[in-house]
């Protein structure tokens, strides 16, 4: 059992590293974009169809508004994000994706869907899928506790 746990641990570490690298490569291949993984995840957090305040996106990404401002400035310069003044309160600035940004969003979402499909390949029964969800939930809880 110990050897099996060790092997699972090694594979998990390798998978984490490879997923991040592959995610970036996949989105770049599909779109020809020049974005870092952090920028791609910022585009994903902004979302496709809604305008958000900077503080909302910073909360989603667990970063400060100042850090997000630097990221958004770069994404605006590259043409992936636009800023909009709120109609109700001109002091409030909201951000949304441009057409170019929505292309990145779609490519990123497609990668995630392909990733889940690959994970569940050959796992047909609801019981097996629930076991996978339970394992992922346990992993999430562990990581969440480490961050608090």
Task: Summarize the structure in words.
The protein has 148 residues and is mostly helical. It has one domain (2-113): Winged helix-like DNA-binding domain superfamily/Winged helix DNA-binding domain (Arc Repressor Mutant, subunit A), CATH 1.10.10.10. The protein is 72% helix and 8% strand. The chain contains six helices and three strands; from the N terminus they run ααβααββαα. The chain has helices at residues 2-31, 37-46, 54-61, 65-78, 99-120, 126-147, and strands spanning 52-53, 81-85, 93-97. Strands 1-3-2 form a three-stranded antiparallel beta sheet. Strand 2 (81-85) and strand 3 (93-97) form a beta hairpin. Helix 3 (54-61) crosses helix 4 (65-78). It is elongated, with a radius of gyration of 18 Å. The model has no long low-confidence stretch (mean pLDDT 92).
SSE layout:
Elements (H helix, E strand, L loop, with lengths): L1 H30 L5 H10 L5 E2 H8 L3 H14 L2 E5 L7 E5 L1 H22 L5 H22 L1
Strand content: 5-15%
Strand arrangement across the biggest beta sheet: 1-3-2
Number of strands: 3
Largest sheet: 3 strands, antiparallel
CATH class: Mainly Alpha
CATH level 3 topology: Arc Repressor Mutant, subunit A
Low-confidence stretches: none
Q: Give the number of helices.
A: 6
Mean pLDDT: 92
Instruction: Supply the CATH superfamily name.
Output: Winged helix-like DNA-binding domain superfamily/Winged helix DNA-binding domain
Which percent range fits the helix content? over 70%
Straight-line distance between termini? 30 Å
**What shape does the CA trace take?**
elongated
Structural class from helices and strands?
mainly alpha
Supply the number of structural domains: 1
Q: Judging by the overall fold, what is the CATH architecture?
A: Orthogonal Bundle
Radius of gyration: 18 Å
* Element-by-element helix/strand order: HHEHHEEHH
